Amino acid sequence: MSKREKPMKLEQFCVFIDEEKKVYYPGETFAGTLHVSLREQMMVAGISVTFCGQVKTCWHEGAGEEKKTFTGEEVLFRKSKVLFGNAPTSIEKRTMPGKPHKAGEFDYNFKFTFPQILPSSFESSFGSIRYYVKGQIHKPGIKLDFITKVPLTVIDRIDTTEMYCFTRKEDEILQTIGCFGIKSGPVFCKADIDRGCYIPGEYIVFNAHVENHSKKTLKGLKARLDQVVDYFAEDGSGHKISRKTLVRLKGPKVYPGETLEWSNQSLQIPITEPSIHNCSLINIRYVIVIYVDVRCFNNVCVPFELIVGTIPGHIQSGNVTHSYKSIPNACTVSFNDEQEEVCKITHEVEYLPAYPYLERTSNKDEKELIVEDLT
Q1: pLDDT for 246-294, tens place per residue?
Q2: Does residue 318 lie in a domain region?
Q3: What average pLDDT does the chain have?
Q4: Of 57, 187, 200, 314, which sits with the fewest C-beta atoms within 10 Å of its C-beta?
């Protein structure tokens, strides 16, 4: 440091959560401390802490002059508490005189309660659902404010003990396969799944019955679990659908004239976000598709929508532990999205949400399956 440079008055500014947990549920209360350490007296307009939940979406369509940007933003809740002085707006503070805050170590306590109904935390390239506590030192005049943030992960209460979760689902389809107007014959597929709601780590147990009345050898019976995310722009001006396959299971071929039973198969749900149906801008749903791969023809598909829950109910056999884990290979995201022209970020925050997961010890006698985990 040169002789002309002055040491920064603010030595430390951060948020501490008491008994910090990996996840929180709607309706829970938490307490914390906003820690301020000053080397010397500082003129401030005030010090505040804000507890906030917000949803954002953003994506682009088209290219060049045809490129169009779609955005959406919703504040789920915002609660603020003034800890020292005032919490002026950017316009008010321009004419507000500063108040001296003496040097030293200071801890300002706060307590907040989550609203009773909230969607789960979510991060993706096209949108996010975020919850955080933000501390702010409001500087008088045109000086930049100081900001510090702590992210919190919220998990919606989706109880898999509800009766509808245990309802067995079944469906069937009869489809004539063909190409370029040449029909090869009909294929019949009937399938069922054991219930409609699961926790990541659990197994979807299903059965399939296929009758190949065509002249073609079918490539194979297969199953896949898809995550479908709907993103919406404000005022319904745009809608984007993102679909990805989380895991696949490969079965046997079906020859012409053959009837095949694919019984008691299981597909494990990997670590993933819970279903989201209570958010106006982001919706997450899951579909298991049991299908016959017909190569160059349209596949014969039997899809079932299911719910990925958060509160375990139906625990399948085996030694099971309940924990919270982050999605493997997911990239951490920066939680500092404040504009640099209006504030100074005291430190960078990297964040990765965690989700409920049921883990059990493997059974050596279990049948080996060809499963491809795509997460």
Answers
A1: 999 999 999 999 999 999 999 999 999 999 999 999 999 999 999 999 8
A2: no
A3: 86
A4: 314
- Nearest one of 44, 42, 47 to 139, comparing CA atoms: 44
CA distance 68 to 124: 19
pLDDT in tens, 156-174: 999 887 766 778 899 999 9
Residue 211 structural domain = 163-308
In Å, what is the CA distance from 375 to each residue of 226, 243, 276, 368? 11, 13, 19, 20
User: Residue range 80-105: average pLDDT?
Assistant: 83
Task: Kindly state whether residue 42 falls inside one of the protein's structural domains.
Answer: yes
* Co-location of 253 and 304 in the same domain: yes
CA distance 197 to 340: 44
Same domain, 147 and 192: no
Is 368 inside any structural domain? Answer: no
Q: 19: left (phi > 0), else alpha (psi -120 to 50), else beta?
A: left
CATH number of the domain where residue 63 is located: 2.60.40.640
